[in-house]
Write a structure and sequence with these properties.
heterodimer, A: alpha+beta, Uridine Diphospho-n-acetylenolpyruvylglucosamine Reductase, domain 2, Uridine Diphospho-n-acetylenolpyruvylglucosamine Reductase, domain 3, Enolase-like, domain 1, five-stranded antiparallel beta sheet, 11 helices, about 25% helix, B: about 210 residues, alpha+beta, Ubiquitin-like (UB roll), 6 strands, disordered N terminus
Chain lengths: ~325, ~210
């Protein structure tokens, strides 16, 4: 790693004052898992790492909190994946606990944080190769297009074909979470889906954070009566592997019919991907194996294989079905 | 050719390690690479800065406090191996993927290659060297020997650390929960069955191999 200075601010205000004006030179750090990876690979060369774990003000407290609030549940950005996985989050939000307990390895989950998970850079092997200059790094074209693209996107339309690496984001989209962001001009709150930007909007950055902005945490809205949520994933390895595809579903059943259905797909597009057509086709219907089999195909409408990743189309459809079966306690047909 | 000097592999590596440490210490004052500023200017009262050059640090390791001076960019693993002569924690992937570098931080297993040494000030660190009491091996270490759980042995210290944490938390009720808890540790020799059997033995799992 290149030399850098470790900055420990006591207050968020001090952290932001330090960060402003030098976006590539001064970067925020929490658990440091993705950041150290980028530093070791020479993909980032900041002069200063500003550690958010040293914050002792009310923002620092909020970033470490995980508790019920007036309007649902708040999960601070410094919570580790292990803490979220083992937390007292109610069953209605189980998709987030399951997602947090599935990412990386048990020991990485002891360091990696919610905020870092949402903001980690993509795992695309062209992006992660220090000698390659691809579209995401400001180059002229996406090297996965016409290259080795087994793990790349089937949705999202390019021109860069990364899949978003955050597993927690998929659960948070299904749970309709809000992200609380603190900037130099005060706090703002956005739906988690709006934290991420497609490459045609922003080819070199995956998120919409402004300069110096910090994610303080996420808020999960009050659960609908009888809400269930689940997370399903397929990986090549069971551990220390990013998903091939993943699905989070949140729904409730009211009077025998599906209500407030949200379905989010992961590792199929450059952002977490909401399957709105699936949600619409399910809403108001009685849960059944036939229904799930029929709507699963809608999840991949518009999907396109880049050559090596056509398998993701049936795979993510299968995960949608598996998630719906488990969320609704409908037995999988033999 | 006359008799070759007696060199052990570890002695040789330690020699290199020392040379690197000396070179590393000389660097910041001699040339002061990209980070340039030895001490950031105009620091407000509510900000502390460490580095980029070597800065003093105290770490509590295996029950004793050790003082050292390392740059802000030195990982805990590098501090242990290159500065404190604790070479039990191994560097293999250096990316948190294999678990060979694992240590306990306040009793919780973590990948020391993915942490900065300065971030561990005030925490209690246990390395594989701290598992035995004097010359008496921990039951888990004895079980690893009894079950022939090491081939090349490079993963062993990380396996022992992970398994120690697993046994303490009690998440070792059966083979599948043990395997899940050990999922961050890779063994390229494929000794998994022997390793799991050794852990089961200590955990007292019914029907263990």
């Amino acid at each position: 790693m290149e030399p850098f200075t470790l900055i420990r601010p006591r207050t968020l205000d001090a952290a932001q004052t330090r960060a402003l004006g030098a976006p590539a030179e001064r970067v925020y750090k929490a658990g440091g898992i993705d950041l150290l990876d980028l530093l070791k690979e020479g993909l980032a060369r900041p002069a200063e790492l500003i550690d958010l774990r040293s914050l002792g003000d009310e923002h620092g407290q909020a970033m470490r909190a995980l508790a019920a609030s007036d309007s649902g549940w708040s999960v601070g950005a410094l919570n580790t994946l292990a803490a979220i996985s083992a937390s007292a989050l109610p069953q209605a939000y189980a998709a987030l606990r399951e997602a947090a307990g599935s990412a990386a390895t048990p020991s990485i989950r002891n360091s990696a944080t919610l905020g870092g998970n949402l903001l980690q850079r993509p795992r695309c092997w062209y992006f992660r190769h220090r000698d390659l200059h691809c579209l995401k790094k400001g180059g002229e074209r996406c090297l996965a297009d016409g290259g080795e693209n087994k793990f790349h996107a089937i949705l999202g339309g390019g021109p860069c074909h990364i899949v978003h690496p955050s597993t927690l984001a998929v659960a948070l989209v299904a749970l309709d979470a809000q992200v609380e962001i603190i900037g130099a001009e005060g706090p703002r709150r956005i739906p988690v889906g709006e934290l991420f930007a497609l490459p045609r909007v922003s080819p070199t950055a995956e998120n919409t954070l402004g300069e110096g902005e910090v994610i303080r945490g996420v808020t999960l809205p009050a659960a609908a009566a009888g809400q269930r949520s689940v997370y399903e994933v397929a990986k090549e390895k069971q551990s220390f592997d990013w998903p091939l595809a993943e699905v989070a579903v949140a729904l409730s059943v009211e009077g025998g019919a599906l209500r407030t259905v949200r379905v989010a797909l992961g590792h199929v597009a450059p952002t977490p991907w909401r399957a709105v057509q699936v949600e619409e086709a399910l809403t108001g219907q009685a849960p059944s194996a036939e229904l799930f089999a029929r709507v699963a195909a809608l999840a991949t409408q518009g999907a396109r294989s880049l050559g090596d990743n056509a398998y993701k189309i049936p795979l993510v459809q299968g995960l949608v079905r598996a998630a719906l079966h488990r969320a609704c306690d409908v037995p999988v047909p033999a | 050719m006359s008799e070759r000097p007696k060199l052990t592999r570890r002695g040789l590596l330690r020699g290199f390690g020392t040379a690197t440490v000396i070179a590393g210490c000389a660097k910041p004052t001699a040339e002061g690479a990209a980070g340039e500023t030895a001490q950031p200017e105009d620091l407000p009262a509510d900000v502390v800065a460490i580095g980029p050059g070597a800065a003093p640090l105290s770490l509590e390791i295996n029950g004793s406090v050790r003082s050292l001076e390392v740059a802000a960019s030195v990982t805990l693993l590098a501090a242990l191996r290159d500065h404190l002569d604790l070479t039990g924690s191994k560097e293999v992937c250096d990316r948190g993927a294999c678990g060979a570098c694992m240590v306990l931080v306040d009793g919780v297993p973590m990948n020391s290659c993915m942490m900065l040494a300065h971030d561990l000030e005030g925490r209690s660190i246990t390395t594989v060297e701290g598992l035995a009491i004097g010359d008496t091996l921990a039951p888990l270490q004895s079980a690893f020997i009894a079950h022939d759980a090491a081939q090349c042995g490079f993963c062993t210290s990380g396996m022992l650390i992970s398994a120690t944490a697993l046994l303490r938390t009690g998440d070792s009720k059966d083979r599948s929960s043990i395997a899940e808890g050990m999922a961050g540790n890779l063994c390229r020799c494929g000794s998994y069955h022997h390793i799991l059997a050794a852990i089961e033995d200590v955990a007292g799992v019914q029907g263990g191999a």
